[in-house]
Specification:
Helix content is 6%, strand content 56%. By secondary structure, the chain is mostly beta strands. Strand 13 and strand 14 form a beta hairpin.
Length: 701
């Protein structure tokens, strides 16, 4: 394994320098900041950039320095400073994560440790399912947490790469009253509002109201988007032992999906020259998606005693998606004409999720136990109709946007209903012993009932189930260092059957990870180094004896190294830095992909963001700079070509005066044209152009 040791050493430098620099500015660090960090809630605001606790990895109020697995927490302050407009943008500085690969500004596409995880986004610890075409609004979240590696022992059906958990903004103890307006290039417009306060004198009933409305055009012709989001919430402290929080949200969006360009003319030579990155390959006025999503749920907590607590979470997610998009299929031999088809889609889905947790803390001899017993339930019902039609081929160098669209036909293989019911029972014990030992053990059993109906008359019913486990051991030294080792498993049901009619088994995943964490005494800065070996099994691949069917003999192995540093280096400097190396290989296959590198997996990734408070020269002034590097990626399954590596730069300028905060954010500052990724020779996705936005926020007293 070849590592770029210059990058590694650069990210490791804070280990040796942080104590000296913090001591130099110690007089500027008020004690209240240290106190705030010590009292951090695992679901509350992150002070600065560095979180000290997270619920995602253990579903308890565990310290990250005592959690034997790699976890990244992105707080609302970092989201604000980086001018984030989408979930993908919020994740781009996270080790092991490649987000926005397909450049489709309208879809949350996320890859963790080389595996596509777009379908495995959780909200407040519960599964989401919105057909992946409904973007999550980052302004809605207090923190975004990334758990890397298999996580089925706590969350059930999860692909092996990991998961993203979105923690919703909730009513606060201190009043909040802020409104904001933003304007930028590509006709960007944005209005935001965030209010929270008590509704009674003793503060036991509190509300919060979060809202945002945004719109923009794009570098691609005929492409635009609009999104509106509003989320009211209410917390009632029924007693000093019992609380109830009601959470609701409504989101509506309209956008034109961006489709890929051919490899010839973007990353490969085309005798006609380079294709314009502003080229639209769809049908203007026809290609457009409208989505609508309503969510309602609650979080209930009751403490029987200080050491025995019960929690119950529930949410109903109802969504609709309607629209059409054009998909290119092939490029003509002369490199001019793009063959296309148009797909009309109508989807309605509803998901009910519930999670019940009983947390008990007790001692047995010299062992201190934090036991979690849980039962979760999921019911999902989806109805989908797809129709497809042929479209006149498009000349990519001299486009005519008055095409002939054929008669739409139904597609039975993707039209019908899906129903899923999942029940999971899990047990976890976080055992502390000695001066710093932390042992985490977990076991889970899942049972599912999956029913698929198609208009063709086919009906498939399967009952995929699995038992998954997890074990991790960490030793927390008194000087802030914490080495750890862990093992975890995952499973995902697979639809369909083989040539003999036997239903496919669930995909499985196993990960072995060793790592080292470091946290400064004031918890303002931390680093994580992780090495992992991750295997995905039971992948479907072509049946060599009957190519019309698949068999489950495929396997992928991903091995990698991640280095991440986050937090406050001095009283004025916050940094986020990461380096990722992924050695990915298809280790079993019946096709020509054996020993090939999977698509959408860069071998090297490196990111750095620094935010500096320039108050010594001008009170209230701050500046941020960032760089993002993505290495080359396989462009197709057979690795016949690769997408080039690229580096883009970000910048920000902040100024606060009285109740006003002004921020000027720029992403891809040099306006570099690049291909973010390719999934085939017919689908290469342009990266984001330079986007600049000026935001003004006013905080009422």
């Amino acid at each position: 394994m070849k590592l770029k040791w210059g990058v590694v050493c650069a990210l490791m430098m804070p280990y040796w320098s942080v104590h000296a620099e913090v001591a130099e500015d110690a007089a500027e660090l008020p004690e209240v900041a240290v106190s705030a960090r010590q009292e951090e809630s695992a679901t509350g605001p992150v002070k600065g950039y560095k979180a000290s606790r997270s619920q995602t990895a253990t579903k308890t109020n565990a310290a990250l320095s005592e959690t034997p697995q790699s976890v990244t927490v992105i707080g609302s302050e970092q989201i604000r400073d980086q001018g984030v407009q989408s979930l993908a943008e919020a994740l781009r500085f996270t080790a092991g994560v490649d987000a926005g690969q397909r450049g489709r500004r309208g879809l949350d596409d996320i890859s963790i440790r080389g595996f596509v995880q777009s379908a495995y986004v959780l909200r407040d610890g519960m599964r989401m399912d919105n057909d992946m075409w409904i973007q999550n609004e980052p302004f809605a979240f207090e923190r975004i947490e990334v758990l890397k590696g298999p996580a089925s022992v706590l969350y059930g059906q999860i692909s092996p790469g990991g998961l993203v958990n979105l923690v919703t903004k909730r009513p606060t103890d201190k009043p909040i009253a802020e409104i904001g307006i933003g304007l930028g290039n590509y006709n960007q417009k944005q209005l935001t509002a965030d209010f929270s306060d008590a509704l009674n004198e003793d503060g036991t009933v509190r509300y919060r109201l979060v809202g945002i409305s945004s719109a923009s055009d794009d570098q691609v012709d005929f492409v635009d988007r609009q999104r509106t989001y509003i989320a009211p919430s209410l917390t009632w402290d029924i007693s000093d032992k019992t609380s109830l929080t009601l959470l609701a949200s409504y989101q509506k969006s309209d956008f034109v999906p961006i489709r890929g360009l051919p490899a010839r003319g973007t990353v490969l030579a085309n005798p006609n020259g380079q294709i314009s990155y502003s080229r639209f390959v769809g049908v203007p006025g026809v290609d457009k998606y409208s989505t609508e999503q309503t969510q309602f749920g609650y979080l209930f907590e009751h403490a029987f005693t200080p050491s025995i607590k019960f929690k119950q979470s529930m949410r109903v997610n109802d969504y609709d998606l309607e629209g059409a998009f054009t998909s290119p299929t092939s490029l003509s031999a002369n490199g001019l004409n793009y063959a296309r088809q148009i797909q009309y889609r109508d989807v309605h889905g509803q998901m009910l999720t519930m999670d019940n947790q009983l947390n008990m803390q007790f001692d047995t001899a010299a062992l201190r136990h934090d036991v979690l017993v849980g039962f979760d339930y999921l019911h999902f019902d989806s109805k989908r109709t797809d129709k497809r039609a042929s479209v006149t081929a498009l000349n990519l160098y001299n486009p005519n946007y008055s095409p002939t669209i054929g008669v739409a036909v139904t597609t039975p293989t993707t039209t019908g209903t899906d129903k899923l019911e999942q029940k999971g029972l899990y047990l976890q014990d976080h055992i502390k012993f000695g001066d710093g030992w932390n042992l985490v053990l977990g076991l889970r059993r899942d049972e599912s009932d999956l029913l698929e109906k198609r208009l063709s008359g086919s009906r498939t019913r399967t009952n995929p189930g699995a038992t998954t486990g997890r074990a991790g051991l960490l030793y927390a030294f008194g000087n802030g260092w914490s080495p750890y080792i862990s093992y975890s498993e995952s499973f995902v049901p697979v639809t369909g059957s083989g040539a003999d009619g036997t239903a496919f088994k669930p995909e499985t995943g196993q990960q072995r990870e060793i790592g080292l964490k470091y946290e400064t005494p004031n918890r303002a800065f931390g680093t994580t180094v992780a090495l992992y070996d991750l295997t995905r099994q039971n992948v479907t691949t072509t049946d060599p004896n009957n190519t019309a069917f698949n068999i489950q003999t495929g396997e992928q192995q991903h091995r990698g190294v991640e280095i991440e540093a986050t937090g406050q280096l001095t009283s004025r400097l916050n940094v986020v830095g990461s380096y990722s190396y992924i050695d990915a290989e298809i280790t079993k296959s019946t096709t020509g992909t054996l020993h090939k590198r999977p698509i959408l997996v860069a071998k090297n990734m490196a990111n750095l963001w620094a935010n500096y408070d320039m108050g010594r020269w001008l009170q209230g002034l701050g500046v941020g700079i960032g760089a993002r590097y993505i290495g080359k990626q396989a462009g197709d399954d057979l690795n016949t070509f690769y997408t080039p590596h690229y580096t883009v730069y970000d910048a920000a300028l902040f100024y606060r005066t009285g109740p006003w905060r002004f921020a000027l954010n720029a992403r891809n500052l040099a306006d570099k044209e690049y291909i973010a990724s390719c999934s085939s020779v017919s689908a290469c996705y342009t990266g984001d152009p330079r986007m600049i936005m000026l935001n003004a926020t006013y905080a009422f007293k």
